[in-house]
Amino acid sequence: MGESAPGHELPLRLFAAFRAAVDAVHDDLARAGHEHLRPMHGFVFQAIGTRGTTAVELGARLGVSKQAAGKTIAALERQGYVERAPDPHDARRKAVRLTDAGRDVLDRSARTFARVRAQWADTLGPDRLERLEADLADLTPGEIWRLDAPGWFGPER
Amino acid sequence: MGESAPGHELPLRLFAAFRAAVDAVHDDLARAGHEHLRPMHGFVFQAIGTRGTTAVELGARLGVSKQAAGKTIAALERQGYVERAPDPHDARRKAVRLTDAGRDVLDRSARTFARVRAQWADTLGPDRLERLEADLADLTPGEIWRLDAPGWFGPER
DNA sequence: CCATGATCGACAACCAGGTTTACTATATGG
DNA sequence: CCATATAGTAAACCTGGTTGTCGATCATGG
Description:
The structure is a homodimer.
Chain A: H1 9-31, H2 39-48, H3 55-62, H4 66-78, E1 82-87, E2 90-98, H5 100-124, H6 126-139, H7 149-153
Antiparallel strand pairs in A: 1-2
Helix pairs in contact in A: 1-5, 3-4, 5-6
The first copy, chain A, binds a DNA duplex through residues 40, 54-56, 64-68, 70-72, 75, 87, 90-94, 150-151, 154-157.
């Protein structure tokens, strides 16, 4: 019964693994010319997605205010990752869509995540990796698609 | 071979589990009167530890500049979590140590992490949990004690 | 013994990314 | 037709990073 490791070892290992995958993605992105993207931007690009979004919707997905989402969109627009166009059906809305550069980020991220998963399958063997995924799913049921890490981590409140 | 889930599912599950543990800790901390602590502070308290530290050392552990560490220390001092005392052996240094309130945060965090681990052992069974820990250790060898999440997540360079 | 260089902590100016409050313009439903 | 709700923007502010600079203190080599 004696657990020699301190209690925060498991959370730290979870975070380390998450971080290793994200670092791999951003290493690849940096090599592909996307130098200035930070880990947090991964959540933003996922939240925008190939279908596009709006400032309010993005804010809700990221767990931040619509104003913060608007600032993020403006910054990504300056960097050429998204473009805004008026919504033909609602003059209040501005549709935010990924440019080719933005889609490149999303595509490369997906490929690198897949590559990392393949490496992990190589290390553990496919069975243990699938078991690990299933166990994680049991521990955090339903929480998969939450992208509100920016609001979660920041100072806010 | 066909993996239907998108590649970022596994990293997201890792992050979700990490986050569930940290949220449990901060829920308990909030109930114990430590209302305003953010997830990031967990790393700071761990980096200070029961043995204390200095601004330079804390900056190195957290992966931020010594100035940022100094600001963090000043903020925690205002909130009563740490106290500074001149180092008798080196008049340049100021020893930073946790107050009783700071030690309370550390103790409660450890207890809550242990409680979460026990809950997870209950969900998966002890064998699967230990296997999960071992697998995570295989995936991220040696990366356990890195506490530089603040610098990793933030905007910086 | 002291001059030089390294180190520690602080301050200032700045930046990124959050917040709240307030506002305009546009939809929408009674 | 008007009242209300919603989308986006702007301003002022906060936190927590950054770099550059600086005075004070230690450590070392001549």
